[in-house]
Amino acid sequence: MGCFTFVKLMMVLFNLLIFLGGLTLLAMGIWVSVDGSSFLKLLGPFAGQSMQFVNVGFFCIAIGVILVLLGLLGCCGAHKESKCLLLTFFSIILIIFIAEVAAAVVALAYSSFAEGILRAWATPALQRDYGSDPVVTKIWNTTMNELKCCGFTNYTDFVGSKFEKENAGSLPPSCCWTNSTQCSQDEAERSAVQGCFEHILETLKEHANIVGGIAAGIGVLEIAAMVVSMYLYCHLDNRVS
Predict the structure, then answer these.
(1) What are the beta bridge partners of residue 183?
(2) DSSP letters along the chain, please?
(3) Whole-angstrom Cα distance, residue 185 to residue 204?
(4) Which of 39, 178, 203, 220 has the most CB atoms around it within 10 Å of its CB?
(5) Main location per UniProt (predicted)?
């Protein structure tokens, strides 16, 4: 009976954390929806394109609501010792866990495909909007100066662009190591400044252990939640007797 009470308490505390996490996401989602212009500044050079595919605010609200309901479900199931609620909680966590595993497999399998999609719209955007659209130009200049990179792939993203034609064949200063205003195509080729995508990819690889550790930690928590809920479910009959 002591073990059952301890597990029940852990179940309540665990779901309380889920509930608070859901409230945090919900608040952030509402903030993004109300003041989206401020949030767009955090998304870097791909802000406009990203918002065309995913409304970040509504996504955060949806996930936040799910976590809040899930936390309430787990707490009520443990507190009221309801087999129905515990089984429902277990089923939802199991579905989420399977979906995350499937998403990870798909992400690994289609990472190169996703890179092709990003390249397909990033390069035309640089060709068309850089130098003419002040927002896009400022964001890309900030990104290239901070990361010491040039374009999405490399300097070739600007070859034949509107910016090059309007500046007598000059490329952005970040594409040359001299960082001069007159950065010719030949000088950019000799400088061989790395593209921003490759730079970001290398940074992600350097932090892959951290990302993997976080993902593994989330998986362990989900498995623990399923084990605890199933333990309570299976021992409720003994508790009643």
Answers:
(1) 171
(2) -HHHHHHHHHHHHHHHHHHHHHHHHHHHHHHHHHSHHHHHGGGGGGHHHHHHH--HHHHHHHHHHHHHHHHHHHHHHHHHT-HHHHHHHHHHHHHHHHHHHHHHHHHHHTHHHHHHHHHHHHHHHHHHHTTTSHHHHHHHHHHHHHHT--SSSSGGGGTT-HHHHHTTTPBPGGGSTT--S-B-HHHHHHHTPPPHHHHHHHHHHHTHHHHHHHHHHHHHHHHHHHHHHHHHHHHHHHHH-
(3) 29
(4) 39
(5) membrane
Quick: pLDDT tens for 53-78. Answer: 346 667 778 888 888 888 888 888 88
Q: Which two tokens stand for residue 103?
A: 């998403």
